[in-house]
């Protein structure tokens, strides 16, 4: 106890300064008693500080334990919460992706699935810059364009307002018109595909699609659709370019076989037939629907 240690140590101090027989130590008794009192006060103060430090340490340990417990609870809640699905529709321009995204969303909603649709490039600030490049209002090197798409994709995933990662974690099924395979195909016509894949590696690690559906159409048919549905063509909407892009899509699928879940669908058919093929490719992800 504090009293025993205090008393014993004060006793030792008194023996040092106040020995029997008067002034054998050369220190007057009154001075010895004062020194002992000072020594005892200092010792008492030190012991008080030590006890306070022990209490703080214990409180710190309790706080650390409480925070650890809270983190564990949050982790358990996330594991118990059913995450949404993430589906990506891919294809060259004019393949019918936008139409099929809307039809798939409609089908999911009819079955009670909480879902939303999105697209890339996004409507965010980086996406807006990309769209200006695509329409010729801005110019940029192809490597810059590839980098902008990768940055826009990360913002798409991580932005605090409506990031895809949070939505999927919160149980929303997201269907996107284009994801990173578009970058692999379109940009690797100009730069090394490995470089493009590396530039999008973080996006792939953050959120890999449960299914990537590639709508495969003849390039000539795609060009006819573009001519019918567009008042102007964009940067990549040329027949020789789309031919090269389609080949790069197939190359990327082969390169990432076993890593990505890709289904190639013959989209050279009427809209309803293609919609049935899309649903057949993803329906296994919604067994309770």
Number of helices: 12
| Average residue-wise pLDDT | 81
Model regions low in confidence, pLDDT < 50 over at least 5 residues: 1-32, 68-80
Structural class: alpha/beta
Sequence of strands across the biggest β-sheet: 2-3-1-4-5
Give me the count of strands: 5
Order of helices and strands: HHEHEHHHEHHHEHHEH
Task: Specify the biggest β-sheet.
Answer: 5 strands, parallel
What share of the residues lie within helices? 55-70%
Question: What's the quick description here?
Answer:
The protein is α/β, with parallel strands linked by helices. The protein is built from twelve helices and five strands.
Task: Kindly describe this structure.
- This protein is globular.
- By secondary structure, the chain is α/β, with parallel strands linked by helices.
- Mean pLDDT is about 80; it is low at about 1-30 and about 70-80.
- It has helices spanning about 1-15, 30-80, 95-110, 125-135, 140-160, 165-170, 180-185, 195-200, 200-205, 220-230, 240-255, 270-280; strands at about 85-90, 115-120, 175, 210-215, 260-265.
